[in-house]
Amino acid sequence: MVNNFNVMLFEFFRRLSSTQQKSAAMLLWSLWKSRNSKLWDALDTSSAFTVCRAKDTLQEWSCMQRAKKQVQNLPCLSSWTKPPVGMTKCNVDAPTCHNNSITDYGICFRNHLGELLIGKSDFLLSSATILEAETIALVESLKMATTNGMHEVLFETDSRTLVDVIKSNATPQNEFGDLIIQCRSFLNSNPDFVVSYIRRQANKVAHNIAIASLSHPSPHVFYHVTTTLYSTILDEIN
């Protein structure tokens, strides 16, 4: 039975054009996610949402492929480093999307000594993709820096795709694209703001802030190192 299905599936794909193959594969992926949501979380997903998710994800993927061709490989760090004197570093992360219904993120601003200036955690009742969640976190961090009158800020994210798309000329025609436009607007208005990619290992503080977001009122802004962050920040400073 399984072999017959595999033969049928590959024969079906063989008859499609390259563009149709991508659309069909993404729709099957979205159907599988809807099936898992129903099976494991007892969550119903509408047909319209399943199709829209497939279309949006495919458009993001296509945009990423174009961006990779336009942007050279960026140097990436595997451990957190202090910014130069006079600069501020902001790390952002949005590690999880709970059942496609909650988006959480963490933001952390530090000075050239590695000391905390301001941090924020928040969660939104939103069916955002992981890439959209990472972009929402970056937009919020850019807003915070602007509102607090910061200059010479280096923003770091562990989403290489996000950085590549921002630096490219590609703009997806969906919600992700709208967020990219917001990011570029902030960066164009603040030429001393820079966005760069780092490895996940160098983004531990923002990650820990994000996963603790559901434990605090939303949003949660703080100016002192919390007990749960103390050891991580101390290790990075040293």
Which regions are unreliable across 5 or more consecutive residues at pLDDT < 50? 70-74
- The share of residues in helices is 40-55%
Mean of pLDDT: 84
CATH homologous superfamily heading of the largest domain: Ribonuclease H-like superfamily/Ribonuclease H
H/E series: HHHEEEEHEHHEHEH
Structural key phrases:
Nucleotidyltransferase, domain 5, 238 residues, 8 helices, 51% helix
Explain the overall architecture.
- This protein is of the alpha/beta class and 238 residues long.
- It is built from eight helices and seven strands.
- It folds into two domains: 2-70, no CATH class; 88-237, Ribonuclease H-like superfamily/Ribonuclease H (Nucleotidyltransferase, domain 5), CATH 3.30.420.10.
- The protein is 51% helix and 16% strand.
- Strands 1, 2, 3, 4, 5, 6 and 7 form a seven-stranded mixed sheet that branches.
- Helix 2 crosses helix 3 (47-70) and helix 4 (130-147) runs parallel beside helix 6 (175-189).
Brief summary of the model shown:
Helix content is 51%, strand content 16%. By secondary structure, the chain is α/β, with parallel strands linked by helices. Strands 1, 2, 3, 4, 5, 6 and 7 form a seven-stranded mixed β-sheet that branches.
